[in-house]
Amino acid sequence: QTLKNIVHDIESEVGVDYIQKTVGEYFQISVEDLKDKTRKKEIVIARQVAMYLCKEYTNHSLKSIGYHFGGRDHSTVIHAVQSVSDMMDIDQKFGQAIEGLKKKMKMKLV
Question: What structural domains does the chain harbor?
Answer without folding.
Answer: 3-109 (1.10.1750.10)
